[in-house]
Amino acid sequence: MNKDLTVGEPNAVLRRFCLPLFGSIIFQQLYNIADSLVAGKFIGENALASVGNSYEVTLIFIAFAFGCNIGCSVVVSQLFGAKDYGRMKTAVSTACIASAVLCLALMAVGMLTCNSLLCLIRTPEEAFADSKLYLDIYIWSLPFVFFYNIATGIFSALGDSRTPFLFLAASSTANIGVDILFVTVFSMGVAGVAWATFLCQGVSCLLAVAAVFLRLKAIQGKGEFQLFSLPLLKRLAMIAIPSIMQQSFISVGNIIIQGIINGFGTGVMAGYSAAVKLNNLVITSFTTLGNGVSNYTAQNLGAHKLSRIQDGFRAGVRLVWTLCLPMFLLYFFAGRYALGLFLDHPTDTALRTGILYLRILSPFYFIVSAKLVSDGVLRGAGLMRQFMIGTLVDLVLRVTLAAVLAKTSLGAAGIWCAWPGGWCTAAIISLAFYRGGPWTASAKKEKTGND
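The structure assignment produced for this chain is given below.
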């Protein structure tokens, strides 16, 4: 069901909208978690290291799909809030055509550069073959990744976060079963993990795209529909390109950091691979809730209701902090047991690495989550320059600190310390930009008028 986010009490509206988004990202992460879990439990530590190593490369491709999701979602949200339904449908078809072209180009690049990327991050010889096998299969699934992201972006733009949640819940649960079937019954190894993800992502993509077009067909309103619009493509690109750059820079930074980590051996690689999955589950949840704030901001901006945006930001921070507390307690005090999901018979090095990583990062979840909510407001308002500055500062600091501290007596522990340094600095910058937004002046003017 479509939902107008421009009416109703902001805290309740955002909570009802974001909670299914949070559920969706939990199931989305289950794809990668299931791959690592099955690889670590049923194949071995080297397989877990291979899947984790490949994951950092797949994030580059996901960055482009995520950028298309955000660009389409924000523009469609603004047009939906303004009730300009003809141009809204044109924006959807334009986004689909542009995304298809981009996806094909990325598949070609991926096939040509897969070996080079794995060599660049110093993939150990014992993990190279499985890493390449996983990536080769993953590249063929890129159309599913792209169009599923487009579909979920459109659902979110229409205020419907429940439908994509239902698709993901079913497909992610199926992925776990197919993972185990391919690995334990058919003895397909890492290839079984990759093919299971391919099949389940394909089914969820086809269902989501079909549902989106049925939903759009049911929306009636004034305005001329065009299959492709260059002005709307430019508008989509103004949101999508910075979002792609943000995620790509982060992915490249993670690849550089992965290369540094690989120098410490497969034990540290396996520990990091397990711990980073747990960390990414939390950070991606924060990011997704921030995306919900983007949709809320974009709809209210389209409806010229600036005073509601500040209330939405506060509601968003309350939501992410509600999530922060239990995850901090779990990771900081019981990280050993959470890591047990991925490490069946871990070496001492792998276990110590994972525990230390989680204990260093988890106290700073409160800071990075507030930063990601303010990022959501900036992105929903189309303030992409401000949005990019904070992201780049975080990335540059994190990569630089990781490279420097890894060479000190801290060793691998120094790499983990780079995350909080980048997060804290970027949070200060992003929150400062948020406070300088037009909604602040609108809220002050409204308060003065009431007085």
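Interim note for the steering committee: The mean pLDDT is 86. The radius of gyration is 21 Å.
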